[in-house]
Task: inverse folding
């Protein structure tokens, strides 16, 4: 649905960088705005495992330390809310997955991505999928690095990239690139064997 | 532990739908605010915005964050949520 985004005064930066009274008033206004948005969007995600007020406080510090990166391409409050969401989601993922055993991600050195026996699938499993799975298994073993296999396994176990990165002592960008490069490599490998995207989509 | 049939399907879908991605997660998140406003206002999502959309299709982590931002943004504009 198309919406009209209400405009807002563009004096946030001078107020947040201004005299203490001005700054405090701006911070109170921004805090109230963030709490309003986060209170609706966070409680039903990751079991609402963080407190909105606490996260807002952490986000405000991050926002104040990032003022120089605000380019004015959106409303200031939208930009600030995006930062707050990122802070919140990062903290929520860390807490939510803290006690989840991640054998696949912690067994580096012995891990191999293993495909299920395609013949054991549901009765309607088609032969093309079995053939495809066998080829995919070979490509995984022969063309993907161990870290790529770990990243793929983790993502298929529904672990967020950020959590996989933490366990691999890496970062989110690097793990996303591992995953993306792995998928592209598998796709190229399939295509080199005459298997097209259409073939894959038909099989799944 | 072997992949389940559902995981195999998910893997194949991921492979089939992967495409060159000019953004990483940080680059995508940096554009969230303007992308969200453009989307909510029904603007054409071309250029850099097309790159954001492409990344969101391939990164579940960023996609979930973006969905959360949209929900929060709508809440701030909801008069019943004042």
Result:
């Amino acid at each position: 649905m198309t919406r009209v985004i209400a405009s807002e005064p563009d004096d946030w930066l001078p107020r947040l960088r201004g005299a203490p009274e001005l700054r405090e008033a701006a911070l109170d206004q921004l805090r109230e705005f963030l709490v309003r948005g986060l209170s609706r969007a966070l409680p039903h995600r990751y079991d609402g495992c963080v407190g909105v007020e606490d996260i807002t406080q952490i986000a405000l510090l991050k926002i104040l330390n990032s003022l120089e990166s605000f380019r004015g391409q959106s409303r200031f409050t939208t930009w600030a809310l995006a930062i707050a969401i990122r802070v919140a989601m990062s903290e929520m993922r860390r807490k939510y997955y803290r006690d989840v055993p991640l054998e696949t991600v912690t067994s580096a050195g012995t891990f191999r991505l293993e495909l299920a026996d395609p013949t054991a699938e549901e009765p309607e499993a088609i032969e093309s999928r079995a053939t495809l799975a066998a080829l995919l298994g070979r490509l995984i073993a022969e063309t993907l690095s161990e870290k790529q296999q770990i990243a793929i396994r983790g993502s298929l176990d529904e672990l967020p990239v950020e959590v996989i990165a933490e366990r691999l002592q890496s970062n989110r960008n690097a793990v996303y690139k591992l995953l993306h490069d792995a998928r592209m490599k598998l796709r190229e490998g399939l295509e080199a064997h005459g298997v097209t995207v259409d073939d894959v989509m038909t099989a799944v | 532990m072997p992949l389940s049939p559902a995981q195999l399907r998910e893997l194949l879908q991921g492979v089939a739908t992967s495409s060159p991605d000019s953004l990483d997660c940080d680059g995508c998140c940096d554009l969230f605010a303007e992308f969200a406003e453009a989307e909510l206002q029904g603007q054409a999502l071309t250029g850099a915005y097309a790159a954001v959309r492409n990344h969101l299709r391939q990164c579940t982590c960023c996609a979930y964050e973006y969905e959360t931002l949209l929900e929060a943004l709508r809440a701030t504009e909801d008069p019943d949520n004042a």
